[in-house]
Specification:
The complex is a heterodimer of chains A (about 210) and B (about 200).
Chain A (H helix, E strand, L loop, with lengths): L14 E2 L9 E2 L1 H10 L4 E5 L2 H10 L22 E5 L7 H10 L5 E5 H6 L20 E3 L6 H16 L23 H7 L14
Parallel strand pairs in A: 3-4, 4-5, 5-6
Antiparallel strand pairs in A: 1-2
Helix pairs in contact in A: 1-5, 2-5
Chain B lengths: L6 H9 L3 E7 L2 E6 L4 H10 L7 E8 L8 E9 L4 E9 L6 E3 L8 H12 L2 E3 L31 H9 L14 H4 L5 H8 L8
Parallel strand pairs in B: 2-5, 6-7
Antiparallel strand pairs in B: 1-2, 3-4, 4-5
Classes of the chains: A alpha/beta (about 210), B alpha/beta (about 200).
Amino acid sequence: MGLSDPGRPDSGGGVQVSSVSPNWVTTRLDFLTNWARANSLWPMPFGTACCAIEFMATAASRFDLARFGMERMSFSPRQADVLICAGRLPFKLAPVIRLIWDQMPQPKWSISMGACASSGGIFDNYAMVQGIDTIIPVDVYVPGCPPRPEGLIYGIRLLQKKIQGESISDDSLREEHLVGPSGLFLPAERVNELSEPFGNSVSQTRSG
Amino acid sequence: MTQPSPSVPALRRAFGDAVERATVSCGDTIVYLRPDRVHDALAWLKTDPEQQFDYLTDVTAVEYRDPERPLEVVWQLRSLPRKADLRVKAALDPSAPLEVPSVCDLWNGADWLEREVYDMFGVVFTGHPDLRRILMWETYAEGHPLRKGFPLRGHFSRAEQTRQALAAAPEAHYSLDELSIAEAFHELPKDMRERLRRGERGFLK
């Protein structure tokens, strides 16, 4: 994934190395931008539950998130690139994650880590957001309860791959999904559809 | 241990028919008191030299599935010097307003416990200094989640719940007293004092 070795003109995606001087290269701006962005993602850890423990393990020495350019945890959203929601999100925290997402500067991405952040998980009840994609846009969902560090790293690698396919001329990627007059990020019917019970909880009749 | 605690006959002597009944369950004595006499009895249990129940372990409530059974408010007491426990209950008629006197004046620790019972069950503790919701946000409008009549997924649609949650503006409800800024006000930097004085984060009491 790095810039190519000048001695090997066939290596590296999209980089052509001049044979005139070793001091300059030509490349596509998209490739260079995406290469830089994908390899220096600063995560904003939004850890609310046991997924955050796995996230800490991912960041620690054995799994070593620093290998992917993510060693710098950004506890301020102003300097963060990727929001990692690790854990279930109660409705009480919905305005908080919304505010943190709004405080992050573009370009920004988000990872929904684990079953609860992605769908509400086992908490199909009155207190829990049924998937953070009803609150903020999500780029990568990592399944698991909680996901192992390998799972999270796989999700991060998928996000890096996604970033490498972006183009700075595509304005729609950086479009801010402004909240409508209803205060919701998605249409109300879409939120209801995303929050429908599924799997085992469909047969629960307690909520009438 | 099937014998009731010696506190029960002592309570009967002191409060007579305010003691409705007493049972022993799993070795623990449970005393049912008339709701209007609960505060007096708990004050007596705390201060009487024979009793010395100086520690309030928990305040909670129980609602049974059987709709005829009353809703019970539970005070779990502990005497640290005597190494003894006592569970005091008051049965409330669910069709009437749920009210019991607050014991915040006896144990300061009852403050948040009573707020939790109010939040989850809707029991009003009369005389509580600051009876607000504590777990759900303060503008929560769906009711009291641990009541048996409350649906598991709440009353409103998910979209409406999401909309109301996003509109909750949590920062507007932080009291500066809770954040202990009020006491430290004079030690704050000058610009922060100015901003607090302008009411940027609510006014100091």
